[in-house]
Amino acid sequence: MIFRPKRGLALLETIIAIFLLTAGFIVIAALYHTALRHSRVVEEKHIAVLVAERKLEEIRSWSRQTHGTGGTDRFSDDASWATYDGVTTTDPDYPNYSITVSATRHQLFAPSSQFESVRFSAQDDETLVDPPLPTDPIKSFDGSTRRIEITVNWGPSVTQQMSLVSLIGDPVRRIVPDPSSMNLVMLPANTSIAAGATRDFQVTLSDSTGQPVEDASFTW
Question: Does residue 210 register a pLDDT over 80?
Answer without folding.
Answer: yes
